[in-house]
Structure formats: structure tokens, C-alpha cells
Amino acid sequence: MIQTIIVDDDPFVRLSLQTILEAQDDIAVVALGGTGEEAVALFDEHAPDVLLMDIQMPGIGGLDAAEGILAAHPDARIVFLTTFSDDEYIVRALRLGAKGYLIKQEVATIAPALRTVMAGQSVLGGEVLGRVDELMRTKAAASSSATTPAPDSDSVLASLTEREHAIVELVAEGLDNREIAARLYLSEGTVRNHISAILQKLDLKNRTQLVVLYYQAK
């Protein structure tokens, strides 16, 4: 049996997923949680085969919870299940070492995905896979200049102020404007203005290109 923990802040979603998965002969749901903090505690308590977890939740959230779990349990199998195929979330989830990133609307794929993860493979939902492909194409285009060499990423980011650097790092971690504002004790409007200024200063079109540039500089 695939011992599974489900963590989602919506009780209806938790129970629905439990019903779907427990209808399978080879999957057992051993615990349910609703916050990132509960995810960490439940993982320590039950040591499940797979943790199926939402990203946007009260408290530390799914990505931060996963980071803590993977630091303590490097072999943990974590599959994110979310309504958001957000580029920054995908990048951070994959960099953390998540085994999967699925979209909640693709319910029929969840049980097969858990089996795939147990077989040692990673899984991406169809919509997510499309976003990853586009991210890779963007990165390839950014790294291969047509006739003139692209400016070094480090030197480009060096033009940013200390505050702008802090915001870029948080954007790359997958935080949205509200979360960045809370982390840096700023208003959402101030964060939004900073990001617009950063994009203009670096001659970038969107946050996705900013994240790609950041990871090229690492």
C-alpha cells in the first residue's frame, strides 16, 4: 500500500481527495492536514511514502513546509497539488526536489501519479509540463545571443539596490506580492512598484524572465 498524507487548507478538497485515493486498492490515506506546519508534524509522525500537498495555505505554506521536510528527510517524496501552474511556484518546487507538480483539476491523474513517484520517477501535469517547456525555451533564448554576447547575469543584477535584490530573491522563491510584502514589511503596492522598476531596469518583460535571469546568475 502507498501510505499517503494529504495536506490542503480546504476541508472539502481534503475529503474529496481522500475518497478518490482510498477507492484505489493500493493507496491508503494515513493522515490529513490543513497547514504547512501540520504537514511537517504529520510527516515526522507517519513517515509516509508520499506527501500530497497544496502550495498556498495559511502559515508557512506548502513550499516552505517542503523545504523543511526535505532538509530533515532528503528522500521524502512530495507531490504538489495546486490550482496554480504559476511559473515561479513550478521553478521553486522543482529546485526543492519535489517529485511532482499536479493541477487539482486533473483529478484522474493523481492516483497514477503516486504510483509513478513510487516507481522512482517524477510527474508533471499536462498544463505544468507546458509551462516548464516554455521556461526552458525562454532560458535557452536568453543564454544564446544572436550576434552579440549576452551580458553576464551577475553584472546585470549588480545594478540592483539591496532592497531590489531582496525582492528578486523572494520572487525566485515563488512568493507572490502579498507574501513578499509580509516578509519585508512593505505594502503590496510598494512591492508591485519595486518589481515594475526592476523589470524596467533589467529590460525584462515579466517575472518569469526575472526568475530565469536570477537562476542563471546563481
For the structure shown, list the relevant keywords.
six-stranded parallel sheet; 218 residues; Rossmann fold; alpha/beta
CATH class of the largest domain: Alpha Beta
CATH fold-level label of the largest domain? Rossmann fold
Helix tally equals 11
Question: Poorly predicted ranges (pLDDT <50, ≥5 residues)?
Answer: 145-151
* Sheet with most strands: 6 strands, parallel
User: What quaternary form is this?
Assistant: single chain
Helix content: 55-70%
CATH homologous superfamily title of the largest domain: Response regulator
Residue fraction in strands: 5-15%
The domain count comes to 2
Q: Topology as H/E string?
A: EHEHEHEHEHEHHHHHH
Strand order of the largest sheet: 2-1-3-4-5-6
Short description:
This protein has 218 residues and is an alpha/beta fold.
Descriptive notes:
By secondary structure, this protein is an alpha/beta fold. The protein folds into 2 domains: 2-127, Rossmann fold (3-Layer(aba) Sandwich), CATH 3.40.50.2300; 145-217, Arc Repressor Mutant, subunit A, CATH 1.10.10. Helices cover 56% and strands 13% of the residues. The chain has 11 helices and 6 strands. It has a 6-stranded parallel beta sheet, sandwiched between helices. Helix 5 links the parallel strand 5 and strand 6 (123-124). The chain is elongated, with a radius of gyration of 19 Å. The N and C termini lie far apart (40 Å).
